[in-house]
Amino acid sequence: MPAETRLYATPPGFKLAPLADIADGAARGFRLRLKAGRFDGFVVRSGDSVTGYVDLCPHAGVPLAAQPDSYQVHAVSTGLLVACTWHGALFRAEDGVCVAGPCVKQRLQSWPVEVRKGTIFTARSGPPPWWRLLLGLA
């Protein structure tokens, strides 16, 4: 049986979960099986907003959580930090930059997500298509 292709992006509009399913200051993983392959990502909640990342440590190329959906999120005075279970790297939840551990200044790959009416969806990366019309790029 051939290995499943790993994807690093998703199309917009996939319904992931109700926002209420993720505790404030916590993270939840999502595995999406698409025609082109499998995508693994996680979402960190901070209040009513969410930030998504591809579930892949830039240091070692492994998922951040040792067990499915067991992300370690730490609240500090400057915000939330997500820990890589394997190597102890700490990533700022707001922008994915590593602030401690073996990959300082590297960053997690962003995964565009958004909250609409209390539900988390995958989002479009970059400006919406109508923006290109305004700039005369279409």
TrEMBL record:
It comes from the Bacteria. InterPro entries: Rieske_2Fe-2S, Rieske_2Fe-2S_sf. CDD domains: Rieske. This is Rieske (2Fe-2S) protein. It holds the Pfam family Rieske. Keywords: 2Fe-2S, Iron, Iron-sulfur, Metal-binding. It comes from Sphingomonas populi. One of its GO terms (molecular function) is 2 iron, 2 sulfur cluster binding. Residues 14-122 form the Rieske domain.
